[in-house]
Design goal:
mainly alpha
Length: 54
């Protein structure tokens, strides 16, 4: 989970509200990307190869 902890810690340390909002948006984007990758692997485990064969 490279980047998650660093972004969270940086967002918690900053006092600049705009910077904090940007960091939290980046953190959310990382979470969404990780969720998508996880779903792809779950499909692979279930034997749904269509995404992997493209």
């Amino acid at each position: 989970m490279t980047g998650f902890t660093e972004l969270r810690d940086q967002a918690n340390r900053t006092t600049d509200l705009q910077e904090k909002e940007l960091l939290l948006e980046q953190l959310e984007a990382l979470h969404r990307a990780a969720d998508e990758e996880s779903k792809l692997h779950e499909d692979l485990i279930r034997g749904e190869w269509r995404v992997w064969n493209e």
